[in-house]
From TrEMBL:
InterPro entries xref list: Polyketide_cyclase/dehydratase, START-like_dom_sf
Descriptive protein name: SRPBCC family protein
Top-level taxonomy: Bacteria, Pseudomonadati, Pseudomonadota, Alphaproteobacteria, Hyphomicrobiales
Length: 147
């Protein structure tokens, strides 16, 4: 099983970051890889079990199901149902915590998945750097624009 873990600091208060990031379908507004996204069946984006269906800027299509969601813990977990990547059993968690000094936010995004050994380095890069790290930077820019 491959594991990816990326963390970062966003120079904004945790409540502002979570208010923006908690929308499971909101990544289409701030993540540079997402071209279009919608939640199937008109469900709320914070309802456990909802499925976001989205298209990447390169044309790839994904479907992801929200497995758990907590405003109290400022965290959600989801899995991939359909992906153009050669992976299986993908489960990811996104969460934020307050940095006690300076009014900043600690962000962590992690995933575990099965992938063939010959694809692992490429997929770890794609998930870790291209998706999670790029997403944290883009999220900071989006949140700061709203403050």
């Amino acid at each position: 099983m491959a594991k990816v873990y990326v963390s970062g600091i966003i120079d904004a208060p945790v409540d502002a970051v979570w208010a923006y990031a908690r929308d499971f379908n909101g990544h289409g507004e701030w993540h540079p890889l997402i071209a279009e996204s919608h939640v199937e069946e008109g469900l709320p984006s914070d309802k456990v079990g909802c499925v976001r269906n989205f298209t990447l800027s390169n044309g790839g299509k994904l479907r992801e199901r929200l497995l758990s969601f907590s405003d109290l813990d400022r965290r959600f977990t989801y899995n991939i149902i359909v992906s153009p990547m050669p992976i299986q059993n993908y489960i990811a968690t996104f969460g934020v915590k307050p940095v006690t000094e300076g009014g900043k936010t600690f962000v962590e995004w992690m995933a575990e998945f099965d992938v063939a050994p010959e694809d692992e380095a490429r997929i770890r890069q794609q998930v870790g750097r291209d998706t999670f790290a790029a997403g944290i930077l883009a999220l900071e820019k989006a949140v700061k624009a709203r403050l």
